[in-house]
Amino acid sequence: MDWFNGEVAGIILFFIGVYGLCARRNIIKTIISLSILQAAIILYIISDDAYSSQVPPIISTSAHPIQMADPIPQALMITAIVIGISITAVALTLFVSMYHHYGTTNWNKALSKRRDAD
Amino acid sequence: MTLILYGLVFGPIIWGLTQYLIKAKWMESLGWVFKLILFALSLGCLFKVQTQTLSLQLTPAPLPYGMMLSVDTLSATFLILNNFLFLILTLFASKGKYSESVFSFLFLVLQGLINGIFLSTDLFNIYLLIEVSTIAISILIMYKKDKPSLYDGMFYFAINMVAMAFFLFGVVMLYKRFGVLDLFHLKEALGEASRNKSLILPLSFLFTSAALKAAVFPLYNWLPKAHGIPSAPSIVSAVLSGIFVKIGVYLLIRLNMLFMDVIPLHGIIMVLGLISALMGVTFAVAQTDIKLLLSYHTISQVGLILAGVGGSLMINQAGGLYHLVSHGLFKPLFFVSSGILIEWYGTRNIKDMQGLWQRSRGLSIALIIAILCITGAPFFSIKTAIYEGQDNLFIRSLFLLINMGTMMSFIKFLEMIFSKNRAELSKSGFVSRPIKKEEWLSLKLLALASATLGLFSRTISPILVNYSFEYTFIDRLIKWPSYLFTFVIAFVLYKTFFKDNKLIKLIRKFDLTFNETNIVLVSFFFIILLWIDYL
Question: Is residue B24 exposed (0-12), middle (13-18) or buried (19+ Cβ within 10 Å)?
């Protein structure tokens, strides 16, 4: 099972999210699938450079910079987490507004009602 | 000089917030000065990059660890288009119902974010800026909060977020391989690396997301919903078609430049561009809804632009880029005019709009200029440069077919302008609403800018696209007979075959659900993966 690391799990998780987007008609599940995609990407990148010999990238420690883990993926993913949460929040807000008008959580039913509204 | 790059990104956002908080009359006047300064700054950038690239380091850490804003000829072209368009469209809406503070704030924020996308050289920053601008544009699409706009806005938001997740995955995979995010350093690193299987997956992710942003066929389904939505303000449709969809084109050009040494992408871009142009025009011919017709033409014209930038000759690439700027001007002209027409006639069906010439000569002339630009009339457009020097007869025929399809679509506009006389007009339910002087001014400026780009392409093109189109007056004059001949054939075909054809009616109703769009997106991703692997 050596091949199964964070990166592989990230790729698998990403395509589980993609499956949710393709197969689920529920808009809430679409938003959950989007969150799964985000989580998969975060898992993929923070697993990079995660070797047991490396120390956290904190300057106050006595470790040499060469021994430290790359801090950029962590910094980037903090931003990605914030953006991911914002996207989920915006998506849910938009969905609530939409639900008030359509009364359904189903993409296809909403589409047929959208066509009727034209 | 480099500090102005800060101003181009943060200036509109800070100004938008200030204008939102301080609601005074003098702020409005000061706002115009500010918007003119932004346009002047982007113009200054365009002239400055003729001699040197402008760069501004954003962090104390040097590259490749830090971040940078930079302008080269390509980004300067997009910058000038963006700032000119926002200036004109704000002028158009300045006295209308969309001049309220929230709308103005969102509009200014969007301007700053789009400037940021073109200025940033860091892939992660580009991702962030596109994400935030997509949120802003979704809110603008849903601004009226009516039933259709809520569905279309939600659809647009969700599918674009999926695309951006693909983009982020591509970015992190590249970072994992090379340890840099800056475009220039990434290009250097790619130049040193040999062609490797590990590049195919990140490139496919990035390419798929950029293709969706550019509404390349078959990933176009979100565009007619977002651009052609009847209830969205016309200036939002104008921004979407004028500049926002071009972000995808910008990303594709950047990806092509980035991977040029290891995996050349221009062939894929050209083929996808041609397919998009052909399919876009097929859908456009079938439409009778004025905004949907224009939206499908955006797909077609973006396809043509991509076919140009993916071309093998310099003239094709420069022609594609020049047409991109031209399209960024005449398409907003079409959209804002369509907004006025929908208000006047009380319908979106172009067949029910008649006798415009008798009612408004000014608007008719503006629309005729836009029609001449989009159909590639000599003196008004240099669209032919996109396929100039192309020896392949099949590809030349395809271009001819696409152009003929465009002409067929815009015959509907010509019918609207020239049909019916004054006596019959009274029956067509025309509600006259005088065009405000701000609207007139912006329409005139857009028409003038579109015509100027065509007429003075020889002078403007070296500055704008770094290439000189050597078309003389005689060269253009002798192209008129073939242009008119193509128009006549298009007219005959439209009247005899396409008008009220059953197949056309079937195409008009074709639409994909959200799940189907995602299936198409994933299939497209795997096709691109195999295609790149095959290259």
Answer: exposed
Per-residue model confidence (pLDDT) at position B157: 93
What are the tens digits of pLDDT across the range B11-36? 999 998 998 888 777 887 888 888 89
Does A97 reside within a domain?
yes
* CA gap B496, B500 in Å, rounded: 9
Farthest-apart Cα atoms in chain B, separation: 73
Domain residue limits at A111: 6-55+64-117
Are A87 and B131 within 8 A, CB to CB? yes
**Average of pLDDT values for B61-84?**
87
CB contact under 8 A, A102 and B151: yes
Contacts of B14 (CB under 8 A, 6+ apart): none
* Residues of chain B numbered 123-182 and touching chain A (CB < 8 Å): 124, 128, 131-132, 135, 138, 142, 145-148, 150-154, 157-158, 161-162, 165, 168-169, 172-173, 175-176, 179, 181
B512–A contact, CB cutoff 8 A: no
Summarised one tens digit per residue, pLDDT across range B278-325 is: 999 988 888 888 888 999 999 999 999 999 998 888 899 999 999 999
Residue B458 domain boundaries:
267-494
Model pLDDT, residue B1: 66
Task: Select from B242, B299, B298, B301 the least CA-distant residue to B110.
Answer: B242
Mean pLDDT confidence for B328-345: 90
Domain count, chain B: 1
Residue A105 lies in a domain: yes
- Whether B511 maps to a domain, the answer reads no
B184 touches chain A (CB under 8 A): no
What is the average per-residue pLDDT within B487-495? 88
The pTM of the full predicted model, rounded to 2 decimals, is: 0.93
pLDDT at position B432, please? Answer: 65
CA distance B364 to B348: 17
**pLDDT tens profile B94-137:** 876 666 778 888 889 999 999 999 999 999 999 999 999 999 99
SS3 state at B48: helix
Partners of residue B154 in chain A, C-beta under 8 Å: 27, 91, 94-95, 98
The predicted structure's pLDDT at residue B271: 93
**Residue B32 maps to a domain:** no
* Helix residue ranges, H only, B466-513: 473-477, 480-493, 502-509
Helix (H) or strand (E) holding B71: strand B68-71
Q: How many domains does chain A have?
A: 1
Using CB atoms, pick whichever of B138, B181, B519 lies closest to residue A22: B519
Q: Is residue A1 part of a domain?
A: no
pLDDT given for residue B431 in this prediction: 63
Residue B356 lies in a domain: yes
pLDDT higher than threshold 80 for residue A93: yes
The reply to whether B147 falls in a domain is no
> B247 by DSSP, 3-state: which?
helix
Q: Provide the CATH number for the domain around residue A110.
A: 1.10.287.3510
CB contact under 8 A, B131 and A107: no
Q: Indicate whether A98 belongs to any domain.
A: yes
Q: What's the burial of A56, exposed, middle or buried (CB within 10 Å: 0-12/13-18/19+)? A: exposed
Question: ipTM of this predicted complex?
Answer: 0.92
The single residue listed with the structure tokens 């496919």 is B204
